[in-house]
Specification:
Blueprint: E1 2-6, H1 8-21, E2 27-35, E3 38-47, H2 63-75, E4 79-88, H3 96-100, E5 108-115, E6 118-128, E7 136-144, E8 147-150
Parallel strand pairs: 1-3, 1-7, 4-5
Antiparallel strand pairs: 2-3, 2-4, 5-6, 6-7, 7-8
Length: about 150
């Protein structure tokens, strides 16, 4: 199983972002470095959710903001390792829409459940495969400060 290594402060930032934007979905990017067994994250970057039709259960990062995030990563000697978003009042499991809109093969997709405005479980999934046609999500364990918070659960 792939591992996403998150510093505690990044984990806390992601969860706080979800609480702040509740009942809308939050979103952002994870900056890091590839590791033999997954990703080692060094920072998170908040993004604006540009969805206007259903921001309570969908998210979108504007292309221009994504380019800015990628430049920020390069300046820090890192790369975009993945993305995060919240699921207001919904489990931290990827949805068919999450899957259809995931295109960064080899990247981590972190989802935090925010129930009644309070962050609950946080899960991570690796978008595996070699093409758009064979892409699939795999459960990814999250490790913080050498402490495992487990693999995703439904």
């Amino acid at each position: 199983m792939s591992i996403l290594r998150l510093p505690r402060f990044v984990y806390d930032e992601i969860r706080a972002h979800g609480e702040e934007t509740y009942p809308q979905e939050c979103c952002g990017a994870l900056l890091g470095h590839p590791a033999p067994d997954g990703w080692r994250i060094v920072a998170s970057v908040r993004a604006d959710n540009t969805r206007t039709d259903s921001a309570h259960n969908r998210y979108q990062i504007a292309p221009v903001e994504l380019v800015h995030i990628q430049r920020t990563a390069r300046r820090q000697g890192a790369e975009i390792a993945g993305f995060y978003h919240s699921h207001p009042d919904h489990p931290p499991q990827w949805s068919p829409t999450d899957f259809a809109e995931a295109h960064w093969l080899g990247s981590s997709y972190v989802i935090t459940e925010v129930a009644q405005g309070k962050a609950g479980r946080t899960n991570s999934f690796l978008l595996a495969g070699t093409t758009e046609e064979d892409k699939h999500f795999e459960d990814q364990a999250i490790m913080m400060d050498d402490e495992s918070i487990g693999a995703p659960s439904a």
